[in-house]
Design a protein that fits this description.
574 residues, alpha+beta, 3 domains, 4-stranded mixed beta sheet, 10% strand, globular
């Protein structure tokens, strides 16, 4: 039995052996500390001692274990511990001293392995490649400018005049400088590449997967970043089209077409399977990432079209000048405030059958198991009422909270806050337009907004994961989640703006390549991710080495594909 369990240990698992030396039977239960107010779940039951049994444990989160006797006494032993991958642990339940004094002696029979070693090795390798990539152009320029190379190049030139021109370095043909923000393309590419890496498994590390319910992981950053960038791009692109003389009706046609194509692509490819074809009606899911992006893009674009152009003379100063990026667009702010009020009222005031009003928990085992069928509260109820079973059937909370209700993280109610998230990106675009060529003002405004949104997040969450007024929750796209992601977006865009567009220390590689072909990379990796050479059937499933290599390999292939398309000047646009 012991040998079989050792052989059956999988990734992120440890082995626990419980020895019972009591004359009565015992029951061992557990809960994950990441599961909010969850019920203890049975782990194993041992008969009268001496007896023992072994069982695998998850090593992702800290576990609290409890030992109870079959006599009905209160739990004599309870402890919390974060177990290490492939480690072997043992607990001996025995009498100590007095007849009724039961103790649990814990020992480590085999030290766990370092599950983060593959991640460290990958980080070092990527750092070395980045240094090599950055230093190669400088080395090439140094060699090109050396006297030896200049002499050879001049010898090859037939005309002395041409030689002087080519060797002097003063007469060079330069391409016109583009006004396009490379930092914005780089930011988009970074979020897209992280999204591809996460969708390819992220090496099967828990922090590269979405949080079970409340809280944040790396995977929870990418989509709101993408929505933020979308909002910024809407302001910059539509303003540029207006300056070129494009009418509002033409903008509306373009906006409607792009939104419809995004939604259609998302609905088709998310329901694709080799067995059922393009549309798998047997398990079709109506919501999805591209569907939400398409709807959000349409609302943001409509707001920008209906907003009159604002050209404020830079020399004029009024009392509201420090707030001009807000005051000049007050109708948009009124609309967003009303939209957020709708989200708050529906979330916390809508009666949900069988659930407490305002419930935003995961249901299942959470909250003492009192509301097992209330996953997502009003958000889940609205999706099930409108869409039936055509929503996501495997939410991130299902494994930890043992939920039975389907719940869609791209559902109807959360789309409201997706628009609000995009509006924070629009605010960044307005700052870039109103304070153009005044980089210090742009950075100052970015930092102010980042600080303000961060303070709102701290107030809403009380700086806790589960105990605040509105916890940070990606599944619900809660208000605190939007403010938190808005704060990080402003900070990251400000950093890239300094490094790329102001100082020119970084050209944005390699993220800028997928950032300029985002639709192609996103749709391509979603359709082809399960096929070779992007993935294969793994043979070493007990550790993270092969899983991490596969995720990095598949992601790197898409970066290379995006680079080749960039060199060929091929950009998929809709």
């Amino acid at each position: 039995m012991f040998f079989f369990i050792v052989r059956a240990l999988k990734m992120d698992q440890a082995l626990l052996t419980v020895n019972n030396d009591l004359k009565s039977g015992i029951k061992v239960s557990y809960i994950s500390d990441h599961c909010y107010k969850c019920l203890f779940q049975p782990l194993l039951i041992l008969s009268d001692g001496p007896s023992n049994a072994s069982v695998p444990l998850s090593t992702r989160f800290t576990l609290t274990l409890s030992v109870e006797t079959d006599t009905g006494d209160s739990a004599p032993c309870r402890w919390s511990q974060l177990y290490g991958q492939s480690g072997h642990y043992s607990v001996r339940v025995q009498l100590s001293g007095y007849p009724d004094n039961i103790t649990c002696v814990r020992t480590i029979d085999k030290e766990p392995i370092n599950s983060y070693l593959p991640l460290l090795a990958a980080a070092v390798l990527l750092l070395l490649l980045a240094v090599l990539f950055v230093s190669t152009p400088y080395l090439y320029r140094w060699l090109k400018r050396s006297k030896f190379n200049n002499f050879l190049s001049c010898r090859r030139t037939e005309s002395s005049l041409d030689c002087d021109a080519s060797c002097s370095g003063d007469v060079e043909q330069t391409k016109p400088v583009s006004s396009r923000l490379r930092s914005l393309d780089t930011f988009r590419g970074l979020s897209l590449i992280v999204m591809v890496f996460v969708n390819y498994g992220g090496g099967r590390y828990w922090f590269f997967q979405h949080a079970p319910w409340n809280g944040l992981t790396v995977a929870d950053f990418v989509m709101p970043w993408f929505v933020f960038i979308m909002g910024t791009s809407v302001v910059l692109a539509f303003s540029s089209l207006r300056r070129k003389g494009t009418s509002s009706l033409q903008l509306l046609r373009k906006l409607t077409w792009r939104s419809a194509v995004l939604i259609l692509i998302g609905f088709c490819f998310i329901n694709y399977s080799p067995r059922d074809g393009l549309l798998s009606w047997s398990w079709a899911r109506v919501p999805g990432v591209l569907q939400r992006l398409g709807f959000t893009y349409f609302i943001l674009g409509l707001m920008q079209i209906l907003s009159p152009g604002r050209n404020v003379p830079q020399e004029e100063h009024r009392w509201w000048t420090p707030l001009q990026d807000v005051v000049l667009y007050w109708p948009q702010w009124v609309f967003i405030i009303l939209l957020e009020a709708v989200w708050l009222c529906v979330t916390f005031l809508l009666p949900v059958p069988g659930c407490p009003t305002g419930y935003v928990g995961a249901g299942g085992l959470g909250d003492g198991g009192l509301y097992p069928n209330c996953t997502g509260g009003a958000a889940g109820y609205i999706d099930r009422w409108l869409l039936g079973d055509n929503i996501y059937r495997h939410p991130t909370c299902k494994e930890l909270y043992r939920t039975t209700q389907p719940f869609d993280p791209e559902g109807v109610l959360g789309t409201i806050n997706s628009v609000v998230m995009g509006f924070t990106g629009m605010q960044a675009g307005k700052i870039l337009l109103l304070y153009r060529k005044r980089n210090s003002c742009i950075l100052k405004r970015f930092l102010i907004w980042a600080t303000l949104l961060g303070a709102v997040t701290a107030a809403l969450t009380k700086c806790t994961r589960d105990g605040g007024f509105i916890p940070v929750n990606k599944n619900l796209w809660s208000l605190s989640y939007v403010t938190c992601m808005g704060s990080t977006s402003f900070l990251l865009l400000a950093l890239m703006y300094v490094l790329i567009d102001i100082q020119g220390w970084w050209a944005g590689q390699p993220f800028i390549y997928p950032g300029m072909n985002s639709i192609f990379v996103y749709v391509g990796h979603s359709l082809l991710g399960a096929y070779f050479p992007f993935s294969w059937e793994m043979r070493f499933t007990g550790e993270h080495w092969e899983a991490l290599f596969q995720s990095l390999w598949g992601t790197s292939l898409w970066v290379c594909i995006a680079y080749l398309l960039y060199r060929k000047s091929f950009f998929l646009k809709i």
